[in-house]
Here is the input.
Amino acid sequence: MKKRKCILNGVIALIISQCIVKILGLVYKLYLANKQGFGDAGNAIYNSGYQIYALLLTISSIGVPNAVAKLIAEKKFSGDNKEIAKILKSSLVIFSIIGIIGSLVLALSADFISNKLLNIKEAKYTIIALSPAIFNVCLISVYRGFYNGLNKVNITANSQTIEQILKTVFTIILVEIVFVITSANTVAMAAIANFATTLATLCSFIYLYRKNNLKDVKVRFEKSNVKKILKISIPISLSAILASLNRNIDSITVVRFLKDSIGESQAKIQYGILSGKIDVLTSLPVSFVIAIATTIIPKISLLNAQNNKYGLKKLGKTYILFTILLVLPCSIGIIAFSDQILQLLFNNTNGSILLKVSAIAIIFISIEQITHAILQGIGKVFVPTMSLFIGVIIKIILNMTLIRLPESYFIGGTVGACIATLICHIVASNISFRVMIKKLNIKIEIFKYVLKPIISSCIMLLSLYSSYFLLKGIIIENIAIILAIVIATFMYIASIFILKILNQEELSFIPILSKFIKFGQKNKIYKKK
Here is the structure.
């Protein structure tokens, strides 16, 4: 019981950490988007370089934590600290080498990437500023896997929070300094903003290193451990690489295909709106789903090892339902209030149509994330890879076709890129979802999983509209929209209980929501057992 509570506390800490990371990420991105001399043009330079960095980072480090955690966990029960230290040392050696190679490749190819791939020559300096971070993150990934394997998830969560806090602080301070020194030079501010990431990752690595109580254990490097790690991490990394590649398609194609029709300068601004505003806002709801998906993989793996078909089926259905309930109102709310949200955060409504289209994709990206986690938990690691591969191919073809169309066609320009993303995730999520329900023998009831959530979302939307239009005549409009969102959120939660969308057993599967069972019993929504 104590062990289970410890694990649960770590899971909750990881979810809270992810929430903090995304909120702070939104803070510094809002700062950059609204900073004099930065804006949409600066976002284009900043984000194009960052996306290439993210792709190389995915290739070099994603999948490492899970692989290391699995090997560490196997040795933990024997209590052999020397064997654990051997795995850690082997991992650090091999991924130090990979990290150095990744950093050098990024730095040395910065000119080629910015001019030939991105068509944004100013991105060269942001890429160089980010290159050392690949080495840092490779080592961070090893340490996070090490602590996860020891069930010290709190350390991983703390490192993520520290990294994001410092990234936010460093970004704002350094950009302000460069703003004064260079008289608001956009290229210099974009480069230093990305260098803040390098500094933050270095601090995160130092924190993780200092927490290691086995660093004084003397052991030798073993090649056999490296083979084990690579064997486990490569299949998981393939899915992550494809997801990262999918995000890079826009950075490579948007400016390239738009500049002939609207000019290079305007094309960069359009990409800046897409990457610096739309992607930031739509990734926020998805980030909560990703945090949840990460935490359920061990639970799914355990049930699968026990051949507990009922538990797998119930857990799969519960988290699919929870995902729908989480993202559906977000998607509908963003579509209905896209102008107000952009005005509130960025002081303009540029990109409203892009935000509406991208908000629909939130639903399918989230379902894709949770189904991929379930499939990986039951050992079907290549299904997510294949579904994403098909989705990426569709995204490339549609980007090449739709972006070239005039914006007056509604499906042309940057709107075309958003439509391509939507269709990509509809296809990918559909493939994975069908495989999942077949493997777990799940039946999805339309009334419970679709109609009731839609009714609750409509109640939320009605509350949002009515409270907003009532309040905006009394108080400042920006405050009115914030209060309206709070009121609509409470109405949405209440409607979920009134319609009994989640039963007691389903609530018990979700640590945060399980506390509502007593509330439901007290108010005679649920029967006492």
